[in-house]
Amino acid sequence: MSAPKERYKGSLATLKGLLPFLAPYKKEFMLAGIALLVAAGATLAIPYAFKQMIDLGFGTAGTKGGKHINLYFLALFGVASVLAIATAARFYMVSWLGERVTADLRNAIYRHVVAQSPQFFETTQTGEVLSRLTTDTTLIQTLVGTSISMGLRNALLCIGGLVMLFVTSTKLASLIIVLLAAVVLPIVLFGRRVRKLSRASQDRIADTSALAGEILNAMPTVQAFTHEKLESQRFSTSVESAFATALQRIRARSLLTVVAILLVFGANVFVLWLGAQAVIGGSMTAGELGQFILYATIVAGAIGALSEVIGEAQRAAGATERLLELLAVSSPIRSPSRPQVLPPRAVNGASLALHGVSFHYPSRPHSPALLDISLDIHPGENVAIVGPSGAGKSTLFQLLLRFYDPQRGDILLDDVDIRTLDLHALRDAIGIVPQDTVVFSADAMENIRYGRADASDEEVITAAKLAAAHEFIQKLPQGYRSFLGERGVRLSGGQRQRIAIARALLKNPPLLLLDEATSALDAESERLVQGALEVAMKGRTTLVIAHRLATVQRADRIIVMEHGRIVEIGTHASLTAQGGLYASLAELQFSQDHGAATDTR
To answer: Fewer CB within 10 Å, N- or C-terminus of the chain?
Structure first.
């Protein structure tokens, strides 16, 4: 994946990238902030209540002292009740925000990724994207739903506690401030290192996910070549690399925590020893010392918690950086701001024209896939495209669907440049049966309905009948409601092909692209599907890629391609008579077929 032009540097700058996802929930953040302030205020009130209870309650003899004790115990319980309610409200609001913002972020990333052109997936592994959608967004959830709230809470407690320390004893508080200042240095030093290690850790996890996804999607191949042990070792190596990187991050965070806690509590113990000497000397009351101890504990705990929050924020900053990089990737294939509209559909299909089209894949800039292709196809024409592997036949289909744009030349659909059309309008006008059939993890009815989401069950069944798929679907355990398995593993190759053909027929487009549509069918199924396709070709323009020349003999025209160029154009009879590439391919195939038939007899 190509890096975006702007790199997000520094944790604070990186986390600012989340603001667009936080902005819609200002009201909820305000409510959480109010609950946070109330909870922090109640926490800071508890030491003062203890001081009053000690000095005015225990320090006063008789019934009056008993009344003071009862009063301050009731006040203490009241403060605790307020603290409990405010803390629960804060927890609910920030947890809701964490879940909501994470859901929005995942939706935004997924929407962005599915809108990318195939060029994006040439250089990005799907496992890496899945890692960012899961692991990285979970870290953001922790940041928004816990870390921000905990950071603000402990910052308030730290500031409020320091203020009350000065109110209680300026001398002791000054000493604490001087000593606690030493805590800032290790936090700053280790914070940067934790952030770098967090990013590296997430990268290793993404690598592991990508490797696992690739292998799990190719298990039949792995098992056929008995590479289970080898792939397990590769995965184990990747996992151990991720573990080693995570261990470095854990060590850095552990060291940061140890140093911070030791310094904070060491400083507190020393200052409190001085406070105990002041009480013995009579310059401080027992209640004031108790109050000072509680505020010092609050400040120390807040600083310790802040160090933990900073560590979490550093991890989240690394995750945020990766997510923002993904969102910053821009697809080179976009709909124009003011798209043109295709003319009304003609009765006999769409016209298609290519003028001087040349193209190379972005990942192979020095290997042209198409060179100066010019071609005019009339509405309703049935055109076959043949040639050896690597001639550029499937690449031509990808350009027609505008998965890529050619570096030179124009492609016109019904006399409209496809680059001026809305992408959805263009692709809605084209139906395709790809060479690599895709069947989704759903039932047969929904897999065919993928061709047109608003189609009725009757229309789906009609398309299945045209594609010779109705009979085998009916024999499935639940018929059209039978789950076909991930990637259609419960179907044969020919059955998956017929599902894809039914999907294209249901779409009923003016331009139909068939990329080896019958390649995975047996002889009987091919005969049935070929007859159905001939019916479906009526009233539409059809381009057929075929290696088996027997299937294209009745095409209106045959385009012969080699090395990205059109080398011959004509009918089966005229091309055979020319004695060129097509004639050579035909002679080779038909002689093989004749030989195979003879061997069978």
So the answer is: C
